[in-house]
């Protein structure tokens, strides 16, 4: 019988190997016996080091995002403030803009000879404005302050149409021949004459007063191109409004001094984020303002608005003429969730209940890209394409 050799035994005398080895405990046995596992000798980062690492990573990614925003030019767009220049007698004017992205503005004030022409008319402000806002649209007004040349006597056999309203009617930023009044005149041929008596900045009480003064023109038809901000406002309603945008002029992003560029040290990422947040807040406030203008918060002003429009309608009836209200949309979210659908319905229903003939132009613009209908990115008045659509819709009713 062979003898086995214990290769683990030392060659020299030593301690009794049958006794437990306390210098190297059996971890598995210890865990099985319920003892805690032996401590891991791997170094563990302290809490302060973890916080420092997280902060460092955050700063790195913020700096990377800031760099991307700068390189890609993702900051909010800004424009020099457009202006309307007008002579003291209000017979000549200019709308001026910082650029001409659609190549439609007929006036270039960078030419000294062009500025001299307007200075001669009395528009001396062109020298102050041309560097920041060199591109423009020319305006001329009749003695009655209607847009266009002198108005002659009414011609027999010709239907005279007078359009009234605010800047949407006057044609802010649009050449005279491209306004819906001029297009309506063309569509009617020699048997129709259309006079554009829209005045920028007018609300319904101004329109009503101007309408009375234009009765000397002996209109057969009066078209009131109604804009959603036309209603009268009670003192209480007007006093609580703090909105910065009206969905017509992008005032938040306009500047009046300097080149409008942010200082190099100002974070572009932060500017972009705050612009988006402020824009959303202002949009909500502005939308609510428009909606409440024809609701209980402005009950007195809205009632006065209806009465003034009904009075114009009855005046034309008594003269054997016609009065028509064309409700114009605001050019925002036409291809999405248009926020003023209920306002259109409220206005149309209230006026029809008073016997006024109403055309709501919203359906003609529904599902269109609103930006393609703007005069300028900073000015959301209807451009020449929108004016032609307005004219064609009204022409169907005339």
Which secondary structure elements does this structure contain, and how are they paired or packed?
Elements: H1 27-32, H2 47-72, E1 79-80, E2 83-86, E3 92-97, E4 107-108, H3 112-121, H4 126-129, E5 135-140, E6 159-165, H5 167-170, H6 180-188, E7 192-196, H7 204-213, E8 221-226, H8 235-239, E9 254-255, H9 268-292, H10 299-318, E10 322-327, H11 341-353, E11 357-360, H12 362-365, E12 374-376, E13 379-382, H13 384-397
Parallel strand pairs: 1-9, 6-7, 6-8, 8-10, 10-11
Antiparallel strand pairs: 2-3, 3-5, 4-5, 12-13
Strand content: 5-15%
Query: Would you tell me the overall average pLDDT?
Result: 84
Shape: globular
Question: In DSSP terms, counting alpha (H) and pi (I) runs of 4 or more, how many helices?
Answer: 13
How does this model look, in words?
The protein is an alpha/beta fold and 398 residues long. Helices cover 38% and strands 14% of the residues. Strands 7-6-8-10-11 form a five-stranded parallel β-sheet, with helices on both faces. A four-stranded antiparallel β-sheet has the order 2-3-5-4, with no helix packed on it. A hairpin with a 2-residue loop joins strand 12 and strand 13. The longest helix is centred in the first third of the chain and has 26 residues.
Defining key terms:
398 residues; alpha/beta; five-stranded parallel β-sheet; four-stranded antiparallel β-sheet
Summarize the structure.
With 398 residues, the chain is of the alpha/beta class.
């Amino acid at each position: 019988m062979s003898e086995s050799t214990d290769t683990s035994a030392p060659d020299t005398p030593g301690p009794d190997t049958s006794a437990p080895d306390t210098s190297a405990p059996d971890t598995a046995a210890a865990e099985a016996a319920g003892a805690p596992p032996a401590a891991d000798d791997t170094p563990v980062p302290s809490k302060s080091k973890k916080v420092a690492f997280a902060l460092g990573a955050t700063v790195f990614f913020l700096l990377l995002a800031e760099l991307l925003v700068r390189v890609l030019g993702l900051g909010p767009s800004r424009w020099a403030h457009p202006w309307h220049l007008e002579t003291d007698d209000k017979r000549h004017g200019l709308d001026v803009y910082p650029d001409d992205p659609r190549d439609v503005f007929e006036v270039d004030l960078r030419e000294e000879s062009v500025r001299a022409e307007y200075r001669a008319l009395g528009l001396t402000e062109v020298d102050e404005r041309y560097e920041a806002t060199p591109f423009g649209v020319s305006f001329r007004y009749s003695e009655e302050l209607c847009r266009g040349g002198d108005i002659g006597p009414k011609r027999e056999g010709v239907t005279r149409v007078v359009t009234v309203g605010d800047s949407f009617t006057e044609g802010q930023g649009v050449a005279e021949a491209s306004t819906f009044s001029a297009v309506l005149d063309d569509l009617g041929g020699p048997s129709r004459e259309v006079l554009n008596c829209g005045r920028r900045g007018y609300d319904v009480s101004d329109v009503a007063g101007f309408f009375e003064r234009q009765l000397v023109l002996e209109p057969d038809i009066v078209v009131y191109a109604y804009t959603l901000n036309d209603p009268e406002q009670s003192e209480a309603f007007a006093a609580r409004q703090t909105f910065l945008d009206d969905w017509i002029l992008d005032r938040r992003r306009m500047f009046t001094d300097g080149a409008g560029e942010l200082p190099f040290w100002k974070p572009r990422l932060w500017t972009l984020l705050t612009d988006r947040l402020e824009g959303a807040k202002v949009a909500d406030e502005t939308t609510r303002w428009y909606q409440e203008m024809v609701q209980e918060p402005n009950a007195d002003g809205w009632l006065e608005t209806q009465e003034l429009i009904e009075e114009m309608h009855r005046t034309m009836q008594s003269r054997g003429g016609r009065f028509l209200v064309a409700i114009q949309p605001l050019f925002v979210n036409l291809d999405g969730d248009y926020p003023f659908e209920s306002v259109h319905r409220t206005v149309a229903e209230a006026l029809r209940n008073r016997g006024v003939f109403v055309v709501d132009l919203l359906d003609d613009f529904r599902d269109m890209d609103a930006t393609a209908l703007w005069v300028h990115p900073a000015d959301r008045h209807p451009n020449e394409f929108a004016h032609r659509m307005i004219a064609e819709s009204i022409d169907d009713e005339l």
